[in-house]
């Protein structure tokens, strides 16, 4: 399969029309149709459901959907590879891709980017937000360079550095709620309360299962969120109490407050990357800078 033909296919999938794709690609419609027919013959599968009389546009078959999704990934990897090869030894340019959930620790990642920006202004940074499953999938496909991950690491597949920082669990609530006067929240406080939890915990097992001393099915889960900002809107409207990490929502001058759990529950994340992954010059410099920052943080903590 030629990359040029793959680009043609993706243009048709995007436009849902061969004629519109031909215009966008500046090729004739008959030539484009022939290229796609040859591709389908090469693969031995139909990629499109052609429109019947009276209907508009074309639809992808199951095989077409698969090729569209994989094709976008292939072209992104090609682009990254070309960029790496084209960069000179003297000028470091390129992209650094990071996958992470919501964490205040991303401030350190931003600090590393800021340090490099002064010396290498042509490095660009991309943060993809998602749960641990998403981060690992992106790593495995080669679409991101680094992931910020909590929990156990598969050391057979990934290199990792455990960070000298922790995220603290607590409860985000309205300041006029019954629990807002407490210094810390115990498991029993939440047993009869309407709870708002991360969808990651719903899918992958709840890290607070042991702490709360109840099965998640026994709790009153009234809503879930992917981004805590959206969860905080639900809290602000009085729908329930959101369990999340500290420092993600600015509660100053708002109707909300954050109260930690007792006994305290913390998570220590790791930065991970795929074993034997070829790092670009840009991602190498970024990793070196991150390591320096984390080393300084660890030294400062040990000196206190």
Structure description:
Helix 5 links the parallel strand 3 and strand 4. Helix 1 packs across helix 2 (18-25), helix 1 (3-15) packs across helix 4 (62-86) and helix 5 (106-119) packs across helix 11 (281-303). The chain has helices at 3-15, 18-25, 29-43, 62-86, 106-119, 132-140, 187-190, 199-204, 209-212, 228-236, 281-303; strands at 48-49, 59-60, 94-100, 123-129, 146-149, 158-162, 167-174, 194-198, 220-225, 241-245, 256-260, 266-267, 270-274. Strands 7, 8, 9, 10, 11 and 12 form a 6-stranded mixed beta sheet that branches. A 5-stranded mixed beta sheet has the order 4-3-5-13-6, sandwiched between helices. It has a two-stranded antiparallel ribbon with strand order 1-2. The mean pLDDT is 88. The chain is globular and about 70 Å long. It contains 11 helices and 13 strands. The protein is of the alpha/beta class and 304 residues long. Helix content is 43%, strand content 21%.
Question: What is the gyration radius calculated from CA atoms?
Answer: 24 Å
Overall average residue pLDDT: 88
**Morphology:** globular
Class derived from helix and strand content: alpha/beta
Alpha carbon gap, first and last residue: 60 Å
Q: With helices defined by DSSP (H or I, 4 residues minimum), what is the helix count?
A: 11
Taken in chain order, the helices and strands follow as: HHHEEHEHEHEEEHEHHEHEEEEH
Let me know the largest β-sheet.
6 strands, mixed
The helix fraction, in percent, is: 40-55%
- Give the strand tally: 13
């Amino acid at each position: 399969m030629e990359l040029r033909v793959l680009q043609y296919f993706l243009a048709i999938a995007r436009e849902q029309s061969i004629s519109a794709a031909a215009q966008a690609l500046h090729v004739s419609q008959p030539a484009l149709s022939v290229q796609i027919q040859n591709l389908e013959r090469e693969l031995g599968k139909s990629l499109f459901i052609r429109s019947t009389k009276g209907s508009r546009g074309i639809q992808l078959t199951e095989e077409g959907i698969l090729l569209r999704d994989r094709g976008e990934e292939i072209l992104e990897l090609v682009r990254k590879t070309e960029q790496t090869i084209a960069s000179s030894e003297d000028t470091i340019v390129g992209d650094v891709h990071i996958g992470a959930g919501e964490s205040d620790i991303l401030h350190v990642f931003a600090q590393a980017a800021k340090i490099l920006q002064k010396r290498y202004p042509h490095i660009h940074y991309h943060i993809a937000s998602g749960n641990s499953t998403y981060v690992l999938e992106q790593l495995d496909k080669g679409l991101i360079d680094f992931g910020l991950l909590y929990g156990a690491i598969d050391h057979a597949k990934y290199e990792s550095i455990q960070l000298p920082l922790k995220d603290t669990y607590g409860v985000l609530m309205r300041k006029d709620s019954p629990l807002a006067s407490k210094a810390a929240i115990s498991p029993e406080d939440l047993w009869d309360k309407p709870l708002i939890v991360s969808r990651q915990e719903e899918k992958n097992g709840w890290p607070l299962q042991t702490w709360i001393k109840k099965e998640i099915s026994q709790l009153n889960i009234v809503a879930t969120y992917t981004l805590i900002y959206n969860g905080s809107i639900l809290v602000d409207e009085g729908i329930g109490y959101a369990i999340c990490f500290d420092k993600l929502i600015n509660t100053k001058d708002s109707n909300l407050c954050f109260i930690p759990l007792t006994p305290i529950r913390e998570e220590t994340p790791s930065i991970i990357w795929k074993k034997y992954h070829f790092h670009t010059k840009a991602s190498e410099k970024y990793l070196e800078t991150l390591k320096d920052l984390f080393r300084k943080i660890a030294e400062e903590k040990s000196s206190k």
